[in-house]
Recover the amino acids of this structure.
């Protein structure tokens, strides 16, 4: 089964004039369109990203300190 093409054949389209236009009254009225937002979007919090950066930095420093302590043997055989 062959699917129909997405664009109709211009020769068989009703009310289509020779230049490709349509006579007045042949098209439906414009539909209503909504542009923009219905209400302002809230600003995202700046606390959460900063908190995650600080926690990640602390974790990286702790792991680096552990590696240095193990390297110098400061942990006494752990």
């Amino acid at each position: 089964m062959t699917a129909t093409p997405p664009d109709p054949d211009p020769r068989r389209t009703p009310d289509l004039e020779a230049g490709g236009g349509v006579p007045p009254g042949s098209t439906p009225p414009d539909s209503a369109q909504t542009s923009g937002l219905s209400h302002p979007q809230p600003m995202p919090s700046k606390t959460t990203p900063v908190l995650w950066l600080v926690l990640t930095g602390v974790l990286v420093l702790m792991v680096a300190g552990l590696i240095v302590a193990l390297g110098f043997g400061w942990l006494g055989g752990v």
Summary: The radius of gyration is 34 Å. The CA atoms of residues 44 and 50 lie 12 Å apart. Helices lie at 47-72.
